[in-house]
Amino acid sequence: MTEASTTSRPGLVEQVIRRHPDPVSVRFRGLSDRTIAWLFISPTIVLLLAINLFPLLWTVYLSFTNYRANRPNAELRGMGTTYYEQILSDPDVWESMQATAHFVIATIAIETVLGFAIAYLIDRKFRGHAFWTTVILIPMMLPPAVVGNFWKFLYQPQNGLFNAIVAPVLGVSPGSFQMLGDVQLAPWSIIIVDVWMWTPYVVLICLAGLRSIPDYLYEAAEVDRASPLRQFWSVTLPMALPFIMLAVLFRGIENFKMFDLVNLLTSGGPGSTTEVASITLKRAAFESWRTGYASALAVILFVTVFGLANIYVKALNRVKQR
Amino acid sequence: MPALSTAHSVVAPSSTSRWIAGTIVITYAVITMIPLVWIVLTSFKTPPDSIAYPPKVVFEPTLEGYCNLFTTRTRQPPEYIASLPPAEDVCDEIARSRNMVIAGPSNVVPRFVNSIVIAFGSTFLAVLLGTLAAYGFSRFKVPLKDDLLFFILSTRMMPPVAVAIPIYLMYRELGLTDSRLGMILLYTAVNVSLAVWLLKGFIDEIPREYEDAAMVDGYTRLQAFRLTVLPQAATGIAATAIFCLIFAWNEYAFAVLLTSGEAQTMPPFIPFIIGEGGQDWPAVSAATTLFLVPIFVFTILLRKHLLRGITFGAVRK
């Protein structure tokens, strides 16, 4: 470069420099990469710190106090770990944890089996499968609260559509059972809506898994004269497993947090048969206004979901590596 | 006979198995559509028809549900109604046939406006912040990059009810309770994690050579970002924006816990559309139908990117 600038033809040199500005001049024109990186990333981080991390820390702090949001001026006392001990030894809380676990396990089991089956069938590539796949996916995009509210109408005991369709199949009269009011049936009424809504989610992920299986594996299995059943067990299922697990992970986290559907369909009732963790939390925080207690419960829930998700992600990675 | 030529190969399913698969899938699709069809049907029923036993599939369609959704009505004696000038429109007529008079507009329009303002406002901010951050994470060496990305994702794992407690207190201090600004900021924070993860995936796929070439040509990094990366990422940005829109449009937990009037969106409002003697199901269905239409449009627009969106970019197809 320096040699070029001393030649007797400055016009050409200028042209060359303009086309290939040297790295030093690039760095001094405009901002440095490091500045840009921070300039670009920090607004997001600041927003998340303010609206996620700070509130979380505040929750942790409140969980050690007797603060009540409806009496902000009352004297604030430290409670130590009293609330944590209370919660962990409270049979009602354990019941709500159990209700949550039942709900999560039942929905995931049904959604995974049904979702994988539908995805497998779609992957047979029948005529019009693309169109019908889009149709199947619609429920998962809908607002759970708005649609859940409508299911309440479908579940009406005497004149609801659900009873009218299901009762003849079971050979009973439509007025003989109440989906939402019955202790035995209420959990199922929520599971049915959740399955209706979220099976498409599993379908979509499983479909991606099935489509990622290279044809040559099946061709090799054919050469080995593996039966279709054998092919399913030794090629299809193992290859799709990481995807199935991913779907289970996402559904598990979402359903552990489940609030919308339950709040609208049963709001925890009848009694507390469908009181999942989020509903217990809402009742403690926004109905009885025991903010300190509710904060402790929130911390416990967050640690649980975070811990479970971490364990699961590790397992998922192990499956992927295999 | 060579094994490869057998017709039952999974690589190319036989026509019988295709036919059976198609029948089952279509049956499933049709069954899952029943509730949605029922919403639309109910929105065109009269209140008595909507709760008739057995449920009515064939009925005389009416706009009563839509009229009731947009108006509030008061019951009046027949003599008073008879003394009024002739009905001005179809809603007037329906109300009078039920011995009622339209008293004024309902709250549905302001709630709908809230939904639109909050959804679009938070989407705009989330996509703006998300695009910048995604570019930063995609192209530069950022210290603790993986930890920061994980932190961004982990904010999404928190149960909304748990987050709502301190947000409620914080907003009360800041005067943001039941305000559109408060909800926009909150939804932006929730959506930005999705936006960063999705957009990082999209930007990772754009070859760096384009920017390098632009910078060799004398453009600064920022100009290169604007002139080469942004146009290439346009599809990804649009898809991300639609995902953010749908989330904000559908969100219920924060809305029901943190808003009550001024900033209330449609999801917490719809369950409280009541008529005389309980929920006015045709009006609820009318609101639901109107509220779902944009989602249908968006889902069809998004169908190629759905998978990516729902897995935070983990599965890209």
From TrEMBL, chain A:
Matching InterPro entries: MalF_N, MetI-like, MetI-like_sf, Sugar_ABC_transporter
- Gene3D superfamilies, sorted: MalF N-terminal region-like (1.20.58.370), MetI-like (1.10.3720.10)
Recorded superkingdom: Bacteria
Give the main location: membrane
**What are the transmembrane regions?**
36-58, 99-122, 129-151, 185-210, 231-253, 293-313
Q: Where is the ABC transmembrane type-1 domain?
A: 97-312
Membrane topology is: Multi-pass membrane protein
Q: Which UniProt keywords apply?
A: Membrane, Transmembrane, Transmembrane helix, Transport
Q: Where in the cell is it found?
A: Cell membrane
PANTHER family per record: GLUCOSE IMPORT SYSTEM PERMEASE PROTEIN GLCT, TREHALOSE TRANSPORT SYSTEM PERMEASE PROTEIN SUGA
Task: State the similarity comment.
Answer: Belongs to the binding-protein-dependent transport system permease family.
Which named protein is this?
A: Carbohydrate ABC transporter permease
* Source species of the chain: Flaviflagellibacter deserti
Automatic annotation (TrEMBL), chain B:
Can you give the residue ranges of the ABC transmembrane type-1 domain? Answer: 112-302
Protein location: Cell membrane
Q: Which domain of life is it from?
A: Bacteria
Its transmembrane ranges are: 20-41, 116-137, 149-171, 183-203, 224-249, 281-302
The alphabetized UniProt keywords are:
Cell membrane, Membrane, Transmembrane, Transmembrane helix, Transport
The record ties this protein, via SUPFAM superfamilies, to: MetI-like (SSF161098)
The UniProt record lists the keyword Transmembrane helix: yes
Q: How does it sit in the membrane?
A: Multi-pass membrane protein
Note the Pfam families from the entry: BPD_transp_1
InterPro entries, per this entry? BP-dep_ABC_trans_perm (IPR050901), MetI-like (IPR000515), MetI-like_sf (IPR035906)
Q: Which family does it belong to?
A: Belongs to the binding-protein-dependent transport system permease family.
What's the protein here called? Carbohydrate ABC transporter permease
Q: Which organism is it from?
A: Flaviflagellibacter deserti
